[in-house]
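We emphasize that the prediction below concerns an isolated chain of 136 residues; any contacts that depend on oligomerization or on bound cofactors are therefore not represented. The input was used exactly as deposited, without trimming of termini.
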Amino acid sequence: MKKLISTSYSDNAFNFAMLVQRVVVGLMLLMAHGLPKISNFNTMSRTFFDPLGFGHRNTLLLSIFAEVFCAMLLVLGLFTRIAALIIVLDLSFAVFMYHRGQPLHNADLGIIYLTSVFSILLLGPGRVSVDGMMGK
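Result of the prediction step, given as a token string:
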């Protein structure tokens, strides 16, 4: 009982928590957002949200890069902070620009992803990762 109300944690608990967070968030981004963008690329490339004027197709490619390639890096824990930064930028556009002015429930999942990946960016991948095993 004492452990349940304590604010301390062990290194093993931290490393396990970061592993679970990285793998779950990375796979969810990949499976629920990245892969559908690839499978619907032709349709989406004409209408995808383009806040910076790069063109619908190029913005979609950048989003696919973040939600597929960087999500896989996140799962592996390889170049974790760089991958997390790219995903944070991608999700920031989704939450703060695409969903701007919409009811909160339209952006709630994006906010959850964003805060989770931002935590990974700040805390790093933990020891149970490729980065951790390489001593980075």
